[in-house]
């Protein structure tokens, strides 16, 4: 049973006209786009493609959420509508999840031009990255010009998410910066802009010098696009350095637009969506087929007979079941 | 029409917020932790929240339940504002529960405002999570796209 296409279209229209409740509901629907009417996904995507997607990553506690909350008014002042997707990589094993990023992003309640949504790893069968990319597509379609995505910089999901960002901010703080390990977690080479936050703390200058040195030597940052990575020293709690940082973010946006990379990024985000959705479809098909034959296979499993053969049989039948999906 | 895909499989999402000027949030934090342990997705928005902020958070997060902790005296006024705000945003289908040091005589007043349940000091965490789960389940069954 699928969602009703015309109902969804009405909801999308409401959201486009500024109904925040409709936007909140649509985000829930987009979290797992697997069973959406295909035309609806295209309807959303066809209205998207203009937003500037900004990945904000870095070690836990570096101040990403606080920084975002201070960047929001700066970006608003420049006329952009701002959406935030705060991804909380809380342990998927134990019970539920406690999503805390929002605690630091409180000041927008009176401003209809800001929308903040938390996403947790839990309960998302399609995976975190599928949810995040799909939600980016929606925010983009709704006319949010700046979409900030907060993640902790580890793991495959984060790699997929960050690969969809036009601009990547890597946030770090004093006391860890002189240890290359601290930045290693896969973020050494991906940043367009490095942010040394908490520069109000005692060790800030030392950390800044270390990072400048690494940057000058080309050990830090992404050079693939021809952009020279930048480094900023800020204090999110004091609100220091935000204007300069927002300028750099906009400068990077203009740069990637000028070389045509902005559009390529949108295309690559949709390619990733196609890959993730097909993975999701296959996973569901395999689960269903496996559930169907599980009891029969038990004897074989005990006798250690035909284990690989059965696996490929399950896979083959799962794909066949996919063939029998109603044509779209 | 309610839509199966919309209600399937997701854990329940609850906003836990502390409204009012006082800075203590031990109670709210204990509830937040208990809900997390009971399998909920808890969006904790912390202390000194205004009714506007709570309503906005609930709408943006598409919450299933809103849990408010209140210690200061102005609970009736705050909850009234919250209910108005939710209604204004088309979100008055999200059930609201309130906990804190609330004079017994105000419990009925809160319920008249539309609060689904009121938890007084000493309430067991078990009952609080059970009530919130029941309310979340009910809402999921009734939820409409439009
Ligand atoms: N001294 C100082 N503390 C800061 C600054 N920015 C953030 N903090 C504090 O650092 C702690 C973590 O801040 P968050 O914004 O939650 O950090 P985060 O990177 O989003 O954390 P996770 O989402 O848990 O990975 C909080 O206690 C903040 O108050 C800053 O500029 N200076
Ligand atoms: Mg955070």
Brief summary:
The complex is a heterodimer of chains A (328) and B (146). Chain A is α/β, with parallel strands linked by helices.
What do you see in this structure?
The complex is a heterodimer of chains A (328) and B (146). Chain A has 328 residues and is of the alpha/beta class. Chain A has 3 domains: 1-46, no CATH class; 48-259, 3-Layer(aba) Sandwich (Rossmann fold), CATH 3.40.50.300; 274-324, no CATH class. Chain A is 51% helix and 13% strand. Chain A has helices at residues 5-16, 20-31, 38-46, 64-77, 128-141, 155-163, 180-187, 204-216, 242-258, 261-302, 307-323; strands at residues 52-58, 82-88, 97-99, 114-120, 146-150, 167-172, 193-196, 230-233. In chain A, β7 (193-196), α8 (204-216) and β8 (230-233) form a beta-alpha-beta unit. The radius of gyration of chain A is 22 Å and the shape is globular. In chain A, 43% of the residues are buried. Chain B has a single domain, classed as Cobalamin-binding domain (Rossmann fold), CATH 3.40.50.280. Chain B is 47% helix and 21% strand. In chain B, β3, α4 and β4 (96-100) form a beta-alpha-beta unit. Mean pLDDT of chain B is 89; it is low at 1-7. Classes of the chains: A alpha/beta (328), B alpha/beta (146). At the A-B interface, α1, α2, β3 and β4 of A face α1, α2, β2 and α3 of B. β3 of chain A pairs parallel with β2 (41-49) of chain B, so a sheet runs across the interface. The complex binds guanosine-5'-triphosphate and magnesium ion (MG). Residues 64-65, 101, 150 of chain A line the site of magnesium ion.
């Amino acid at each position: 049973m699928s969602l009703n296409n015309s109902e969804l279209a009405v909801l999308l229209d409401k959201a486009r006209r500024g109904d925040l409740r409709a936007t909140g509901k649509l985000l829930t629907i987009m979290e797992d786009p697997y069973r959406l009417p295909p035309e609806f996904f295209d309807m959303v995507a066809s209205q998207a493609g203009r937003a500037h997607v900004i990945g904000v990553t870095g070690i836990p506690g570096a101040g990403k959420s606080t920084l975002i909350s201070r960047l929001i008014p700066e970006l608003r002042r420049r006329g952009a509508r701002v959406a935030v997707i705060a991804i909380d990589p809380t342990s998927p094993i134990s019970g539920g999840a406690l999503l805390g990023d929002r605690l630091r992003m409180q000041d927008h309640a009176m401003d209809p031009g800001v929308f903040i949504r938390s996403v947790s790893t839990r309960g998302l069968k399609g995976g975190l990255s599928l949810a995040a990319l799909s939600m980016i597509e929606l925010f983009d379609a709704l006319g949010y010009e700046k979409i900030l995505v907060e993640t902790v910089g580890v793991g495959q999901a984060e790699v997929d998410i960050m690969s969809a960002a036009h601009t990547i901010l890597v946030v770090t703080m004093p006391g860890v910066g002189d240890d290359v390990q601290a930045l290693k977690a896969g973020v050494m080479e991906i940043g367009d802009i490095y942010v040394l936050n908490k520069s109000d703390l005692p060790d800030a200058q030392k950390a800044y010098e270390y990072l400048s040195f690494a940057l000058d030597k080309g050990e830090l940052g992404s050079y693939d696009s021809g952009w020279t990575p930048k480094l900023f020293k800020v204090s999110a709690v004091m609100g220091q350095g935000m204007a300069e940082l927002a300028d750099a973010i906009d400068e990077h946006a203009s740069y990637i637009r000028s070389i045509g990379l902005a559009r390529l990024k949108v295309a690559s985000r949709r390619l990733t969506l196609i890959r993730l959705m097909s993975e999701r479809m296959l996973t569901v098909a395999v689960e269903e087929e496996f559930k169907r034959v599980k009891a029969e296979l038990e004897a074989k499993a005990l006798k250690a007979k035909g284990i690989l053969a059965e696996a490929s049989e399950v896979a083959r039948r799962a794909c066949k079941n996919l063939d029998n999906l109603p044509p779209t | 029409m309610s839509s199966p895909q919309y209600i399937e499989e997701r854990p329940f999402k609850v906003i836990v917020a502390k409204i009012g000027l006082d800075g203590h949030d031990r109670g709210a934090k204990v509830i937040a932790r208990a809900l997390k342990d009971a399998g909920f997705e808890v969006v904790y928005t912390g202390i000194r929240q205004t009714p506007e902020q709570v309503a906005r958070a609930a709408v943006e997060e598409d919450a299933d339940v809103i849990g408010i902790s209140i210690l200061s005296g102005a609970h009736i006024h705050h909850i009234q504002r919250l209910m108005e705000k939710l209604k204004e945003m088309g979100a008055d289908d999200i059930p609201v529960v309130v906990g804190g040091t609330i004079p017994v005589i105000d419990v009925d007043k809160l319920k008249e405002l539309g609060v689904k349940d009121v938890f007084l000091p000493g309430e067991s965490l078990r009952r609080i999570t059970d009530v919130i789960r029941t309310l979340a389940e009910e809402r999921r069954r009734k939820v409409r796209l439009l």
